[in-house]
Amino acid sequence: MTNNVVIVGGGLVGSALALELARRGVHVLVLEKAVPGAEASSAAAGILAPRVEAHGHPEQRALGLQALASWEDWAASLGVDVGLTRCGVLVARDESPDPDAVMVEGRALAERAPGLRAERAWWIADEGMVDTRLLVGAVHAAAVRAGAVFRSGLAVERVDRDAVHAGGERLAGTPVVCAGAWTSLVPGVASLPVSPVRGQLVAVGATEAVRSVVFGPAGYLVPRRDETVLGATMENVGFARGTTAQGLRDVLDAALRLCPSLGAAPVLRQWSSFRPGSPDGRPIIGDVDGVMVASGHSRNGILLAPLTASRVADTILEGRPLPAAWSPARFSRAG
Ligand SMILES: Cc1cc2nc3c(=O)[nH]c(=O)nc-3n(C[C@H](O)[C@H](O)[C@H](O)COP(=O)(O)OP(=O)(O)OC[C@H]3O[C@@H](n4cnc5c(N)ncnc54)[C@H](O)[C@@H]3O)c2cc1C
Fold first, then answer.
1. What is the pLDDT of residue 136?
2. Is the dihedral angle over the CA atoms 35, 39, 41, 46 positive or is it negative?
3. 55, 65, 82, 182: which to mutate for ligand 1, most atoms within 8 A of CB?
4. Are residues 7 and 63 in the same domain?
């Protein structure tokens, strides 16, 4: 059994895996080139919507639902409030997003989103959201309490089968690459098709106009306790940081079309980050030339983090197979 694991990347995926492995008695070292959780994971809107985000792929939907089912216990195990709520998801689009979605209108719609312009929308009752600003710190702290060691400001330069090289040191252990959008820049797993997909977001003041997550044709609304998150662009612009006039306009246009009263809300902040994009939007998790990789979570890394952690830990410690829908082999010539 592996008793020494070195994780590359301290985002939510790396931190959740560190937590899981440390709880199972493994010595875990996490190497983070910047600050744990400071990239996509804390920037994310935090929507937990496996049905809308499955885009018709049955295994991805099933895995997303499995992940969703684990969230209450996992969040409770962190010991602090992470703003997890099953507030439900409204989808203001013509097409039904999923067989479980039911059409609501009139008072049933007004109770969930009094400010919505649409006269009817699809409702999924058991989905929700988590506050990623609280989540990343909570998972990091829980992993440290469980015994995982984090080293920040240390960029991994190379990964071998039994060690990681960073800052002139060779750190022995079983490597797991959780480097998010930067995964294909890590020598050793550079063949993977993970690329950054920038998302711009805007937060405006909290509102009573929306009480559940709302997806529209071109954007979404996330009603946190102290702010409303409006999102998000999907841009292939490499690692260009920051927000743009066009990006913010697109986000605000989409949001105000859904809920015009948001036009009077104060703008609190704006930001962007990089989703770890994969060609089909599904994670890429498994062995790549002898190195375990857990990346490519695209739009669903928050939802899938607890499930990713438990499935990768099962594989490393017990040899259990990983889901075929996530296999890196689907991008190889033979796969
Ligand atoms: C705008 C936006 C909105 C989103 N909304 C949602 C949502 O509502 N629901 C949802 O489920 N998901 C959402 N996501 C997706 C989700 O944020 C990601 O899938 C998830 O955070 C990926 O986690 P990660 O740990 O792989 O990546 P990250 O959080 O980016 O962490 C990767 C870490 O690896 C580190 N790293 C990289 N290279 C190296 C190296 N060589 N050495 C050491 N460290 C390294 C980085 O510094 C970084 O901290 C959203 C993403 C964005 C950008």
1. 98
2. positive
3. 182
4. yes
